[in-house]
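stage 2 :: seqdesign
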């Protein structure tokens, strides 16, 4: 009763694939189609053809499965070495480096089969490999369920897209009834192999032999239920997969919950006896053990939850930490769970988890471990900045350790910056960064706050060093975006618009793995697009980003809405501008007071849209003065430039004063723009328009050109 698949030949697709692999200007191709259509066969044949033409080729296989998708780097665990600590972006760089360590440049052919079943980190790694041209690649996937990073392989035109379909338009092999009948008729040993693979795929040949019995895997292979593969070096142990994705799905249905739990328990019992040197293997075991009768020690589960949090897998971190907390009620499990929930924007739930702690029963070290996420959640997610700041001060009065006090001061600096008190933020951050005992957390908070505060104050020379210190401190949260905004602000004021866009793009090129990180990266990029005058593209990016960020408490949420209102206003859409502006005003508060000038500026552009120039100029001047009162000189200069664009002839004096204080390329252009407008000098305005266009500030350039035309016509 062996099942035989009549795999279509797809000669034309194979020829396309051969051509794609031969094109040195492109990394390879992605094959898209339904299960059972022959994608894997095409990939194997194309790889064989390529290896015949290039004998030095080293072929490596990566196969996504539904169970591997729950583990960071799960499908790549046999190929990459990753550190246990570090930020996701750094881990991805390390993974890329380890993948090519044993292969000479140009010799690696990476086949990624069923890429729609990759975890986020693995999918991101595939995207980055294609983007960098680090390997020849063949990727197979089902387009309709592929992760965003995999779909971007063809939407970003990185790999040639090859679509394949069954000759009759449907895959007969994918009929569930046929598969159910086949599974029901399998002999017990082969059926056992399929049952174990339905709870974890792949499994090593050795482990499956222990679990299902001698000869069981061979029987399953002969009957067409399973297949063995060697994924890396020829001498590496073989692993076993189901022969078709539908087998695992239907076998799981037939197995039922109780049967699956039993198989999972047996598997965890066996795997627990192996030394797990690879982090992905330990996380896989921890995840697998959650729904079994072979529970891991609570401390091990908490440690795995911490590792998942550091890797940026917030979903897995939440599952593991919740399981550990349910079993033990321990503080560390509670802290990991609270952070995972908070970073996912679920502040109310995080608050419930964290406030259950009695601080009076904590040691000083425990108090610190609890106080930092508690305060951060209060400030951003719960929207209680004053309460959070007071709580930090109370906590500081309780601790005596200098390192602990320094960490609390660093978080206080971040709160001060977000609240718009940038001088205090700079003072506190400077003290923290000068303290030898400051740990990585303190340095990350302080350096990122100081970097953005410095950029908005116009102290651009300080930003690179502060950004470097922040990036060197290992912190898995979202502080990298704060640093990113500081760097982008500095580049824009230096007239390096293209470089600013390139930097912003890095935050959206799937180096940022999950929401809300992806949305924040899009806010950074949209900010640059608005400067470039690409208002439609900016608004299209900001609308979904703002919707995502509104569900969190981050100050990026109000900022995204301010920028959205500005982008829509400059397209002339009155109704949508008003709607976005109302949302921005509703979400704005103390925790986003740093961006108060941007809110007033959004109001100004909204009034300009309805031709209320007096109102627009009033709001622009208010925005500039608010920025100056807050010592945000660079922001004030930018806002005064918008006033000039809107026709404010009184802006020359403040612009001249601020440009002298800051001394940057854009500041000097703004002075010339303000002077030309005040003098009604058509030639000078046209010259300024050319200068602005040359550096990529096309929105301001268009306004200057229009002013030149009006001045010339008078």
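stage 2 :: out
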């Amino acid at each position: 009763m062996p099942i035989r698949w009549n795999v279509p030949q797809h000669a034309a697709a194979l020829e396309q694939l051969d051509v794609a692999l031969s094109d040195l200007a492109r990394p390879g191709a992605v094959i898209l189609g339904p299960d059972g259509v022959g994608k894997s066969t095409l990939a194997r044949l194309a790889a064989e053809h390529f290896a015949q033409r290039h004998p030095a080729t080293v072929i490596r296989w990566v196969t996504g499965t539904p169970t591997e998708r729950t583990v960071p780097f799960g499908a790549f665990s046999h190929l990459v070495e990753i550190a246990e600590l570090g930020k996701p972006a750094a881990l991805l760089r390390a993974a890329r480096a380890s993948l090519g360590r044993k292969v000479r440049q140009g010799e690696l052919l990476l086949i990624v089969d069923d890429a729609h079943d990759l975890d986020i980190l693995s999918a991101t790694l595939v995207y980055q490999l294609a983007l960098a041209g680090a390997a020849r690649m063949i990727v197979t996937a089902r387009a309709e369920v592929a992760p965003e990073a995999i779909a971007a392989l063809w939407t970003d035109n990185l790999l040639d897209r090859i679509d394949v379909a069954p000759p009759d338009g449907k895959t007969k092999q994918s009929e569930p009834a046929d598969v159910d009948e086949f599974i029901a008729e399998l002999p017990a040993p082969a059926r056992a192999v399929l049952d174990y693979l339905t709870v974890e795929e792949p499994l090593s040949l050795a482990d499956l032999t222990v679990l299902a019995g001698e000869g069981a895997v061979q029987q399953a292979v002969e009957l067409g239920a399973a297949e063995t593969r060697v994924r890396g070096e020829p001498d590496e142990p073989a692993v076993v997969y189901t022969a078709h994705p539908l087998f695992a799905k239907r076998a799981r249905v037939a197995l039922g919950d109780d049967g699956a739990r039993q198989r999972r328990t047996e598997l965890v019992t066996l795997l627990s006896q192996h030394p797990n040197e690879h982090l992905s293997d330990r996380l896989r075991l921890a995840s697998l053990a959650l729904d079994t009768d072979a529970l891991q020690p609570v401390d091990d589960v908490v440690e795995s939850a911490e590792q998942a949090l550091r890797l940026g897998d917030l979903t897995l971190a939440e599952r593991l930490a919740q399981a550990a907390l349910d079993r033990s009620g321990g503080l560390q499990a509670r802290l990991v769970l609270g952070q995972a929930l908070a970073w996912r924007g679920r502040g109310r739930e995080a608050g419930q988890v964290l406030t259950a702690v009695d601080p009076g029963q904590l040691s000083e070290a425990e108090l610190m471990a609890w106080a930092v996420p508690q305060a951060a959640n209060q400030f951003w997610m719960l929207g209680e900045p004053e309460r959070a700041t007071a709580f930090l001060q109370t906590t500081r009065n309780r601790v005596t350790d200098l390192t602990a006090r320094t960490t609390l001061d660093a978080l206080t600096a971040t709160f001060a910056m977000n609240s718009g008190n940038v001088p205090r933020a700079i003072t506190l951050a400077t003290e923290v960064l000068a303290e030898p005992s400051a740990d990585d957390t303190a340095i990350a908070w302080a350096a990122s706050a100081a970097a953005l505060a410095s950029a908005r104050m116009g102290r651009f020379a300080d930003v690179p060093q502060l950004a470097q210190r922040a990036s060197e401190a290992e912190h898995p949260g979202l502080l990298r975006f704060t640093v990113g905004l500081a760097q982008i602000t500095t580049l824009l004021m230096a007239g390096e618009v293209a470089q600013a866009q390139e930097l912003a793009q890095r935050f959206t090129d799937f180096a940022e793995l999950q929401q809300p990180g992806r949305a924040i990266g899009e806010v950074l990029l949209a900010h640059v697009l608005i400067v470039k005058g690409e208002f439609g593209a900016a608004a299209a990016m900001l609308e979904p980003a703002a919707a995502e960020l509104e569900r969190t408490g981050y100050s990026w949420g109000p900022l995204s809405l301010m920028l959205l209102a500005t982008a829509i206003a400059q397209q002339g859409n009155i109704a949508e501008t008003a709607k976005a502006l109302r949302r921005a005003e509703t979400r704005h508060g103390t925790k986003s007071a740093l961006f108060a000038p941007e809110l007033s500026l959004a109001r100004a552009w909204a009034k300009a849209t309805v031709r209320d120039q007096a109102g627009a100029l009033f709001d622009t001047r208010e925005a500039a003065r608010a920025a100056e009162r807050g010592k945000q000189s660079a922001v004030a200069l930018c806002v005064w430039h918008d006033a000039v664009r809107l026709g404010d002839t009184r802006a020359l004096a403040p612009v001249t004063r601020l440009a002298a204080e800051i001394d940057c390329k854009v500041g000097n252009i703004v002075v010339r723009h303000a002077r030309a407008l005040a003098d009604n000098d058509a030639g000078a305005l046209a010259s300024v328009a050319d200068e602005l266009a040359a550096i990529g500030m096309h929105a301001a350039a268009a306004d200057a050109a229009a002013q030149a035309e009006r001045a010339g016509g008078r």
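stage 3 :: structure notes
- The chain has a mean pLDDT of 90.
- The domain at 612-714 is CATH 1.25.40 (Serine Threonine Protein Phosphatase 5, Tetratricopeptide repeat).
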